[in-house]
Amino acid sequence: MSEQTKLRAGKWRNWSGSVRGQPRAIAQPASIDELARQMADFGRAGRQVRVVGAGHSFTPLAQTDDVLMTLDGMQGVISADEDRGTVTVLGGTRLARLGEELHARGVAQENLGDINQQSIAGAISTSTHGTGTGFGSIATQVAGLTLVTAQGDVVECSPEQNPEIFQAARVSLGLLGVVAAVTLRVVPTKKVNLRTRREALTSMLAHLDEYKRANTHFEFYWFPYTDGGQAKFVNATDAPVKQGGAWANFNKIVLENGALKVLSEISRLVPPLAPTVCKISVAGITPIDEVNYSHLIYTTPRLVRFQEMEYSIPAEHFPAVMAEIRERINQKRYKVNFPIECRFVKGDDIWLSTAYGRDSAYIAAHMYRGMPYKEYFAGLEEIYTRYDGRPHWGKLHTRDAAYLAAHYPHWEDFRRVRSQLDPQGVFLNAYLRALFAVPVSAPTTVQS
Ligand SMILES: Cc1cc2nc3c(=O)[nH]c(=O)nc-3n(C[C@H](O)[C@H](O)[C@H](O)COP(=O)(O)OP(=O)(O)OC[C@H]3O[C@@H](n4cnc5c(N)ncnc54)[C@H](O)[C@@H]3O)c2cc1C
Fold first, then answer.
1. Of 101, 111, 44, which is closest to residue 78 (Cα–Cα)?
2. Taking CA atoms, which of 36, 68, 304, 345 is between 20 and 30 Å from 133?
3. How many other C-beta atoms can be found within 10 angstroms of the C-beta atom of residue 144?
4. Whose CA is nearest to atom 19 of ligand 1?
5. 191-391 is a CATH 3.30.70.2520 domain
6. Which of 95, 128, 367 for a ligand 1 pocket mutation test, highest count of atoms within 8 Å of Cβ?
7. What percent of the chain has pLDDT over 70?
């Protein structure tokens, strides 16, 4: 509940500090019934409503000067269906809590991203993903949704029930309605072995296909201005829990966060030192070998604040894009000390999924909060967009409706479903209105 107390009318900002809002009112429903009543009132009164999860998106998705709704008071598992292998949870459930509650029932999410602070509804809504060529994004784990519309109607959707809404709603940026509950496909709890090591970028690229094939999860970090990186492998195991000891914890908390903070401060204060800081960071990478339950291994604490841009590109273009990125950074000498993170995800069929219709590689660039990032991100974005890149919905980018329409085959289908479910644009803010090219004054209904 700590987040609840942080949300105050007149004052809101996201995790990275890149977005601020001055909501007139905070709505905190405690049940689906109360949520439906509140939405019916807001819809009738023509209010603007944005729902916020954990506020971990970098883009102004949750920004509003009217009603900011939080589902922090709607958390936890509601029911489980053992035969179908599904669990239904309230939309506000934070992933950390979800991991614990599922574990207590002997099940787990099949995959996760880097952190577990997000809400389940927020995570699926932006196509949040982890890594592993056998896994789709978290939204692919969704077997059904309960949506509360702008009129306060409670709509169930799944592949069998309102299938078109289901295709649109799994990744929907809070534009179709409030995701009140999510039915997730789960797997039996499993232990996994995490191994990390320092490895040269050239070596990781040379072994890319092998690493992706031979490990259920492979990802890596590459430090600009060096050939150095950290390779990360995760695989299922029956071995006993092995926590990696004090050194691994020291590595995660102090080296990955504390040292990163100190080194980032040095880069901020003396930007020309950024390449040297990259070299020091590579030298500091030490191997980790841990075994634990998957929900405890997939995610790590991220205590240092940053800005981030991440694109998905068709997996086959990955080596070419990395070569261009490397050349561009060396040429332009961007002052950056954070590594570039590379992950690999299976394609899916969700209309606004960043992996729609193609196996994808995700390349993420980070910049320490307080350091200029626009020129760096623009330089990389120019490369991504030449390779059919799709920006992560929750991370910084400069794409517009025309670009997105050309890169999402079901763009117009999504817009049609949006206008049917929310004809008055209750869930639109200025950013989303522009992104989805919904005119301000005209009726928001789009003809099919
Ligand atoms: C430190 C850090 C690490 C990250 N790691 C990863 C990663 O590994 N992989 C990755 O893909 N992304 C990652 N992200 C991005 C993050 O996962 C997404 O931005 C995610 O959407 C944030 O979830 P949230 O709960 O904070 O949602 P918010 O950012 O609060 O909201 C995101 C969207 O979901 C909507 N929404 C939220 N709740 C509801 C609801 N109940 N009903 C309808 N709509 C709703 C909002 O309106 C908004 O459009 C990371 C971000 C940070 C800051």
1. 101
2. 304
3. 22
4. 57
5. yes
6. 128
7. 94
Check if 181 has its Cβ closer than 6 Å to any atom of ligand 1: no
The DSSP annotation for 116-135 comes to S-SBHHHHHHTT----BTT-
CA of 207 to the centre of ligand 1 (A): 32
Residues of each domain in the chain carrying CATH 3.30.465.10? 77-188
CA distance 448 to 446: 6
Q: With contact defined as beta carbons under 8 Å apart, do 360 and 282 qualify?
A: no
| Cα 117 to ligand 1 centroid, rounded to whole Å | 9
The confidence band for 38, taking pLDDT boundaries of 50, 70 and 90, is: very high
Could you tell me if the CB of 157 is within 6 A of ligand 1? no
- The CA-CA-CA angle for residues 164, 130, 110, to 5°, reads 75
The string of pLDDT tens digits covering residues 252-273 is 655 567 777 878 888 788 888 8
In the chain, CATH 3.30.70.2520 covers 191-391
* 79 CA → ligand 1 middle, Å: 24
What distance in angstroms lies between residue 74's CA and the mean position of ligand 1's atoms?
A: 17
Question: What would the pLDDT profile of 370-392 be if each residue is shown by its tens digit?
Answer: 899 999 999 999 999 999 999 99
- One-letter amino acid for residue 208 of the chain: L
β-pairing, 20-21 with 12-13? antiparallel
Residue bearing the bigger pLDDT, 214 or 280: 214
What's the CA-to-centroid distance between 428 and ligand 1, angstroms? 17
Residue 19: closest CA among 401, 429, 434, 433: 429
DSSP 8-state class, residue 88 = E
Q: In this structure, are residues 365 and 310 in contact, taking their beta carbons and an 8 Å threshold?
A: yes
Confidence of residue 4 (pLDDT cuts 50, 70, 90): very low
CATH topology (fold) of 77-188: 3.30.465
Report which protein residue has its CA nearest ligand 1's atom 36: 122
